Amino acid sequence: MIIRNARILGGDPVDLRIENGLIAEIGPGLGGVTAFDADGLLALPGLVDLHTHLREPGREDAETVETGTQAAARGGYTAVHAMANTSPVADTAGVVEQVWRLGQEYGHCDVQPIGAVTSGLDGRQLAELGAMADSAARVRVFSDDGKCVSDAVLMRRALEYVKAFDGVVAQHAQEPRLTEGAQLNEGEVSGRLGLAGWPAVAEEAIIARDCLLAAHVGSRLHVCHVSTAGSVEIIRWAKSKGWDVTAEVTPHHLLLTDSCAEHSPVGPYNPIYKVNPPLRTREDVRALREALADGTIDCVATDHAPHPVEDKETEWAAAAMGMIGLETALSAVQEAMVETGLLDWAAVADRMSARPARIGRLAGHGQPVEVGSAANLTLYDPSARALVDPGAMASKSRNTPYEGMTLPGRVVATFLRGRPTVLEGKLV
Amino acid sequence: MKHLISAGDLGRDDALLILDTAEELARVSERSIKKLPTLRGRTVVNLFFEDSTRTRISFEAAAKRLSADVINFSAKGSSVSKGESLKDTALTLEAMGADAVVIRHGASGAPHRLANWVRGSVVNAGDGTHEHPTQALLDAFSMRRRLGRLEGLKVAVVGDILHSRVARSNVLLLSALGAEVTLVAPPTLLPVAVENWPCQVSYDLDSVLPKSDVVMMLRVQLERQNAAFFPSAREYSRRYGLDRDRVAKLHDDAIVMHPGPMNRGMEISAEVADSPRSTIVEQVANGVTVRMAVLYLLLGGAIGGDVQ
Amino acid sequence: MSDAQNPPVSGGDLARAVLEGPDIHRALTRIAHEILERTKGAESVVLVGIPTRGATLARRLAERVARFEGRKVPVGAVDITMYRDDLRLRPARPLGHTELPPGGIDDRIVVLVDDVLFSGRTVRAALDALNDLGRPRAVQLATLVDRGHRELPIRADYVGKNLPTAKSEKVKVYLEETDGRDAVVLVREGAR
């Protein structure tokens, strides 16, 4: 089959011949049956998310593997890493294999389970990391995300232990004592709104400690959802030392600030903007964008966190933390990074596909759009512009922070190993 | 004016209209028939998720003096304590035809959220550590009655600013009315970025007192001691408590205020609380008057459900 | 109550002055005499004006009574806003000033004073307000202009001028103290 007139990373239109799930030939005017005429659309390698909450098992009212991967496909993703904070927690080979099988059966993209670092995310006892690594799910990323591995000894051991199978600990950096009852970035807005402050230092202190620990034991460290300018400085310093530290940033931290809690299209104190880590300040956003541009932050990860309506239609303090993001990620990155001239499309492909796949040691994803690569492709129209409509999303939940906002770009088609999962913006 | 949620929503003219209206209504409280027919047929719901008998009865008295029907809805022992959401509670009140909901809630911003779900007016009777606008209005009213003006008045607000809804509302309202507010607290009990608020900040009560026309003492909760906001009640009281010696530093006309309930012996000595400078009892009476003014201005004219 | 937010309409076919300054003075003088006559020297009379212009007229009447009879008649004002029956037709209105006459109204003959008597609804509200303030021996009503079109069984005891009007017309009263001149103007509909 032939995909015609696609601009790879924004280059001149070419045709791609797909055979057996691989890109077999690239060039102008290829002979053969047209499967899809891209008509000048941008072609990116299929996106890879390092940080997705699929909620299954346990919170199928918020999301399932099926609906979550539908959302992923709609957002141009061909692989997602499913976070471990399900119920039961993905802390045994049995649970990660269950998630992996659900992905095989219902997935509209590949589902790579993440294993918990500690049993039940309790922060006290290491989970059976090796068993998860050896399971059918081949887990390489371990995270207690939602909770911080705050015990320094436990964190050190985890960092050391996963070296045996080239794993990585993805740390949710949040010093628990400094964030007891915390609601919103500690700053001018939290002071005015009377919401308990969530200080930047609570994130930065853990990142600094973990960078030092990783260096000390010679391990890989991945930092989840970096949200402050100070964190960027620490990671930049750690990288300058040659330490194996990687980091991700979410689309919402690249675009939104804590002022959303005060002024927004959906009213003040709307917990649609309540998220962990919290939205920060304009200065933090600027630093995060620069860090993603210069590579200090390696990749964009959505932290797609679906919640049912009743968990958000509450007073701020009672609401669940998190926002959905798979279906708006590429648009948000275009708005924050491409429209501002900070990244070109080749760099977007690097930050949203190649690097997350490499950090997750995920085979068959994140490859460049070239002959011999898996035919994982996202065809994207950067010239589109639309009002974000939560009701039109594939996710089972509606907690998008972009309601009432206009964002650029539209995923027109997604191909997973040559098979379309989305065509003309609709699920196949 | 549809709602009264934040003192920051009140411009100078709005605030003065409320105070002037209260001034007229104060006479009603002085006469033998303390009732006006104005809000006949209007329903005011007191929706209290926190215990605050004094605030609730103040609103209740205000609504009743204007002949409104009052429904007290206390979260304790109701469906709310069984896990009903604020939204479902709101829909229930809506079905009862509440023209105004007076809400006291432990979560900052709860009145903003409630306003999305009810058609009637929402009056914030204290939300978490955010605001308490009618308290600020009654404080301003009490100051104006005692001192004859607000413009240029120097007001020291002393105590747990970080957790105080009274402080936030007072800073916003008094600055709009031309008073000069100084917040006085140990650094641990001041919010970050307080330097951007429309007021001065000091850690030193003794240096602020001589130039103050009003000293407003805030309640300090002893639990704060456990979270290391200050070492002990004794040390707090020594550094930030208002006793006879400190009061002696005030000029002759200066007044002492407290929103209540007081911790006598902690932030204020009994002697000071009961002195002629103290407006603490007047504040209670003025609370009813100011709340009558607010309810009148919100509900006394045409509102949503009325045929125009 | 009159509607005198705007400055006087001068000339034109649509606005017509029906009372000028001297007419108003004469009318008030006559009312003052009538009050003295009907209340046997105004011994227990208090004058209570309905703000804004009724209160001004009450003070003028008191001053005349004092001049004619040497008796100081207590003067007060009663704001009727909170007692109106049309509150729900407009946004909440600012309150006028209520001032009980010295000595109160209990067992006194209260002469309510207003500028224009029209539907009678203002007077009805004033009677309710008085009821909450005390128990007068009797209540009488004085008005500068009675323009007819009553909607309630109310009539004035003292009238400065009976003015036949169409219901659509407006009667505006201007007084020196509040408006800088004395006049009663009849404005036909459409004129502004």
UniProtKB/TrEMBL annotation, chain A:
<dbReference type="InterPro" id="IPR050138">
    <property type="entry name" value="DHOase/Allantoinase_Hydrolase"/>
</dbReference>
<dbReference type="InterPro" id="IPR032466">
    <property type="entry name" value="Metal_Hydrolase"/>
</dbReference>
<keyword id="KW-0479">Metal-binding</keyword>
<dbReference type="GO" id="GO:0005737">
    <property type="term" value="C:cytoplasm"/>
</dbReference>
<dbReference type="GO" id="GO:0044205">
    <property type="term" value="P:'de novo' UMP biosynthetic process"/>
</dbReference>
<keyword id="KW-0665">Pyrimidine biosynthesis</keyword>
<dbReference type="Pfam" id="PF12890">
    <property type="entry name" value="DHOase"/>
</dbReference>
<dbReference type="GO" id="GO:0006145">
    <property type="term" value="P:purine nucleobase catabolic process"/>
</dbReference>
<feature type="binding site">
    <location>
        <position position="276"/>
    </location>
    <ligand>
        <name>substrate</name>
    </ligand>
</feature>
<feature type="binding site">
    <location>
        <position position="172"/>
    </location>
    <ligand>
        <name>Zn(2+) 2</name>
    </ligand>
</feature>
<feature type="binding site">
    <location>
        <position position="225"/>
    </location>
    <ligand>
        <name>Zn(2+) 2</name>
    </ligand>
</feature>
<dbReference type="InterPro" id="IPR011059">
    <property type="entry name" value="Metal-dep_hydrolase_composite"/>
</dbReference>
<dbReference type="InterPro" id="IPR004722">
    <property type="entry name" value="DHOase"/>
</dbReference>
<keyword id="KW-0378">Hydrolase</keyword>
<comment type="similarity">
    <text>Belongs to the metallo-dependent hydrolases superfamily. DHOase family. Class I DHOase subfamily.</text>
</comment>
Automatic annotation (TrEMBL), chain B:
<feature type="binding site">
    <location>
        <position position="260"/>
    </location>
    <ligand>
        <name>carbamoyl phosphate</name>
    </ligand>
</feature>
<dbReference type="GO" id="GO:0006520">
    <property type="term" value="P:amino acid metabolic process"/>
</dbReference>
<dbReference type="InterPro" id="IPR006130">
    <property type="entry name" value="Asp/Orn_carbamoylTrfase"/>
</dbReference>
<dbReference type="GO" id="GO:0004070">
    <property type="term" value="F:aspartate carbamoyltransferase activity"/>
</dbReference>
<dbReference type="Pfam" id="PF00185">
    <property type="entry name" value="OTCace"/>
</dbReference>
<dbReference type="GO" id="GO:0006207">
    <property type="term" value="P:'de novo' pyrimidine nucleobase biosynthetic process"/>
</dbReference>
<keyword id="KW-0665">Pyrimidine biosynthesis</keyword>
<feature type="domain" description="Aspartate/ornithine carbamoyltransferase carbamoyl-P binding">
    <location>
        <begin position="2"/>
        <end position="144"/>
    </location>
</feature>
<protein>
    <recommendedName>
        <fullName>Aspartate carbamoyltransferase</fullName>
        <ecNumber>2.1.3.2</ecNumber>
    </recommendedName>
</protein>
<comment type="function">
    <text>Catalyzes the condensation of carbamoyl phosphate and aspartate to form carbamoyl aspartate and inorganic phosphate, the committed step in the de novo pyrimidine nucleotide biosynthesis pathway.</text>
</comment>
<feature type="binding site">
    <location>
        <position position="219"/>
    </location>
    <ligand>
        <name>L-aspartate</name>
    </ligand>
</feature>
<feature type="binding site">
    <location>
        <position position="55"/>
    </location>
    <ligand>
        <name>carbamoyl phosphate</name>
    </ligand>
</feature>
<dbReference type="GO" id="GO:0005829">
    <property type="term" value="C:cytosol"/>
</dbReference>
<feature type="binding site">
    <location>
        <position position="132"/>
    </location>
    <ligand>
        <name>carbamoyl phosphate</name>
    </ligand>
</feature>
<dbReference type="GO" id="GO:0016597">
    <property type="term" value="F:amino acid binding"/>
</dbReference>
TrEMBL record, chain C:
<dbReference type="Pfam" id="PF00156">
    <property type="entry name" value="Pribosyltran"/>
</dbReference>
<dbReference type="InterPro" id="IPR029057">
    <property type="entry name" value="PRTase-like"/>
</dbReference>
<dbReference type="GO" id="GO:0006355">
    <property type="term" value="P:regulation of DNA-templated transcription"/>
</dbReference>
<feature type="domain" description="Phosphoribosyltransferase">
    <location>
        <begin position="17"/>
        <end position="168"/>
    </location>
</feature>
<keyword id="KW-0808">Transferase</keyword>
<protein>
    <recommendedName>
        <fullName>Bifunctional protein PyrR</fullName>
        <ecNumber>2.4.2.9</ecNumber>
    </recommendedName>
</protein>
<dbReference type="InterPro" id="IPR000836">
    <property type="entry name" value="PRTase_dom"/>
</dbReference>
<feature type="short sequence motif" description="PRPP-binding">
    <location>
        <begin position="110"/>
        <end position="122"/>
    </location>
</feature>
<dbReference type="InterPro" id="IPR023050">
    <property type="entry name" value="PyrR"/>
</dbReference>
<dbReference type="GO" id="GO:0004845">
    <property type="term" value="F:uracil phosphoribosyltransferase activity"/>
</dbReference>
<keyword id="KW-0804">Transcription</keyword>
<comment type="function">
    <text>Also displays a weak uracil phosphoribosyltransferase activity which is not physiologically significant.</text>
</comment>
<keyword id="KW-0805">Transcription regulation</keyword>
<comment type="function">
    <text>Regulates the transcription of the pyrimidine nucleotide (pyr) operon in response to exogenous pyrimidines.</text>
</comment>
<dbReference type="InterPro" id="IPR050137">
    <property type="entry name" value="PyrR_bifunctional"/>
</dbReference>
